[in-house]
Amino acid sequence: MPVRQLDESVINRIAAGEVVERPASVVKELVENALDAGARRIEVVTEAGGRRLIRVADDGEGMRREDLVLAVERHATSKLEGDDLLAITTLGFRGEALPSIGAVAHLSITTRHAAEPHAWSITVEGGVKSVAKPAALGVGARVEVRDLFYATPARLKFLKSDRAEGEAVRDVVRRLAMSRPDVAFTLAGEDRAAQTWAGAMPGAVGRLARLADVLGAEFRANAVEVLGGREGLMIEGFAALPTLSRANSLGQYLFVNGRPVRDKLLLGAVRAAYADYLPRDRHPIVALFVALDAREVDVNVHPAKAEVRFRDGGRVRALIVHALGEALSREGRRAATTGGSATIAAFRPDLAPRNWDWRRSPARPAGAGAPRMGGFGPGFAEAAQAAFAVGAPRARLEAAPPAPDLLDCPLGAARAQIHDTYIVAQTRDGIVIVDQHAAHERIVYERMKAALEQSGVARQILLIPEIVELSPAEVERLVARADELCRYGLAIEAFGPGAVAVRETPSLLGEIDAGALVRDLAEHMAEWDEALPLERRLMHVAATLSCHGSVRAGRRLKPEEMNALLREMEETPNSGQCNHGRPTYVELKLADVERLFGRRG
């Protein structure tokens, strides 16, 4: 077949296939253009998920007639001053997106520049553009895209339902709204109620206000500020406490020089920073903004600019991990406010926050079903009844009055132990309920980390080595990691093809079930990726060891032991959550308790 030159319309449709994947892609390009034009207010309207109509109106600087005519031509842009493709300080290239959109849809642009006496309008239909005509409009621009993919009907088959496409549009607008809290956004359409995010004040306060508007008040109540930088690289934003997490990574919003991205390096850095706080099946909620010199990052490695490439990716990753780690450590003794909300909801569902979902509550045990109502009247869940029923044999109350000085401590004075598992403490203005196993697990874990950094974990020799029977594959995995385990005070060696001998255990764990510990470690090691860094593997070992060496649920504690545990929690870093990302305690203010009894509205 001979070589031939493609028609301009075919070239534009090929380009559209790279830029315009779905309605959300169009919205992204048009809103980015509005932001680059200096808009302070942007309105997005869609119909049929954007397939039938997309309209983006802004109050930016607009375009002159000659600029408007060039804007719908390929390889024409107002976003690049010279020929340096690395000196990109804007969000996109106006001249690339618009002709691509016009090649597959009915495109209409009306715009007015402040220097023009009136607005100008131009249309592009299936790649064919009209002449510019006078129009009526204030300073700014209004872009309408109708019947997307009408010129390439085969592409319509690949679109999802109108609802799914509409949600994709919403996600794009949400991310751009988070990146620019100073700009007011409105998202409306026939398939959705109008949603408006008012412009916020500059600085961290305004950024958190916008994030709260987009992500909800729950995020704001549990967010910690992240701030760090060096040598022209700056990291800012907010991250949720580990006790407020999700089952997927969709709650991670990352921005590079104001551009929303889904970059693997950044996602990996976030994961590494939370490795000390969350298990592998839980994901943090963060909104992080990376700012650096435009020449230090390539934004053209992806057609939709969803990914970037850093000149020094290691430096960026290290700073994110450090800044996040510092923020989480600073607020590590806090527990998520959702725990208190969930506790109140367990007693009085009518008082639960509207957005509270018992399925997502960190205070809800894994695998537990929906709260059910019992026979004590409306508002009391079965779990509450069982704990406080008359004659319940496992609720031990301490009759002696609490020491006044202990009431002023952050976690108060121990007053009772419920079901030999939960410590109830009294503070000056409320009640604290502590999960003794989760709390001690974090304490032991932090002790092990500190010991490893100083002189190593002390070991105790077993008089008689404990023989643990395992499968040959499990034995092989454990023996291969023997050196790593030894660093944490666990000395093992092969004992035939189907067993290992445990000769030493970490002394700070005291008396433990070595067999159960070794089996647990073997099971976890089966999930380890060989590419998993040594540091991450060691943290897995430490977390497993601390779990087995901590105070178990069901163990009765004396009053002095309970108070000692509370004081240790107050002194231990990250004691607000255990190694699995669950809260170690729930705090109820006296006002919350009074609401349960109708003393307060």
- The portion of residues assigned to helices is 25-40%
What's the CATH class of the largest domain, please? Alpha Beta
What CATH calls the topology of the largest domain is formyl-coa transferase, domain 3
What global shape is seen? elongated
The number of helical segments is 20
Beta percentage is: 15-25%
First-residue to last-residue Cα separation: 81 Å
The number of distinct β-strands equals 26
What's the main sheet like? 9 strands, mixed
Structural class by helix and strand composition: alpha+beta
Number of domains: 3
Summed over residues and divided by their number, the pLDDT gives a mean of 81
In CATH, the architecture of the largest domain is: 2-Layer Sandwich
Q: Report the uncertain regions.
A: 351-393
Protein described:
The chain is α+β, with helices and mostly antiparallel strands and 601 residues long. The chain folds into three domains: 8-197, Histidine kinase-like ATPase, C-terminal domain (Heat Shock Protein 90, 2-Layer Sandwich), CATH 3.30.565; 203-330, Ribosomal Protein S5, domain 2 (2-Layer Sandwich), CATH 3.30.230.10; 402-601, 2-Layer Sandwich (formyl-coa transferase, domain 3). It has 20 helices and 26 strands. Helix 2 (23-36) runs parallel beside helix 6, helix 9 (264-273) packs parallel to helix 10 (313-330) and helix 15 packs across helix 17 (514-525). The chain is elongated, with a radius of gyration of 30 Å. It starts with 7 loop residues before the first helix and ends in a 5-residue tail after the last helix.
